[in-house]
Amino acid sequence: MVNIINKKSLFILLMMSCSASYAASFDCNKATSNVEKMICSDHKLGLLDDYLAKNYRISMGPDMPEESKLKIKKSQMEWLNKRNACTDTQCIEGLYSRQMDYLWNECFDHLHGKMEYTKYSEAIDKIKRDVDSQEYNKTHKKPEELIEELSAKNASKVHQLGFNNRQLKSTLFLDGFGSYFKYHTLNESLSLILELPDLISLEKIDYKGYAGFRIKTSGRPYSGFIFREENDEIYLTGIVSGDKIIEATTENDMRELARIFLSYTNYVLNNNARD
Q: 27 with 118, same domain?
């Protein structure tokens, strides 16, 4: 696909002559007409142009009858003249819509098997998802950025909890339905939990040789987790529930521990991601 940041191919138009065809495209940096500038500056029109170019190449493929190709070439030239006469983006988009549907109708009866054709309605859906994704990325921080920010913000509070440096640097592994996956360090996880809304206290606890922490939020009983240490790795082994500690004894228990733990940290990540 053409890089739409550096270069935008408006489309490849094969102009018919007696024995040859001519391909026309241009760099957006060299756009001169108002229509060209509107297409290059409008994200939706630029992507519609990419889809139309691809669809046109499909319509000129070896499986298409020559008679249909001649008809499509003539239509494409007429379409180009109409598009270049537009004075606003609505006019341009409408012409892309009609031409994409026209090419689909011309190709449908002749091309069999998997056809990599994008209809106008499909293109609009893809463009909307692309725009939504870009807008989300503009207004939301990436999880790793947020974790780094909160770890720096809460560094002194985390160290005051009483865990040693080896524990804080240890990586937490969670049970992901049959296999463990690496999450974050204990330091990073505690930094996230310190951002829970209505947090009253977060404190280190010890239980039967295991270390852990308990959480108190307004209007809720104590909760928290205990974990076992293996070299520079830590694994959840139980949950704090009020004044009790419930140890995990089965694989399902371990998975439920992971789910509950993630509900805390993901809540913070999701609610602090917006800039």
A: yes
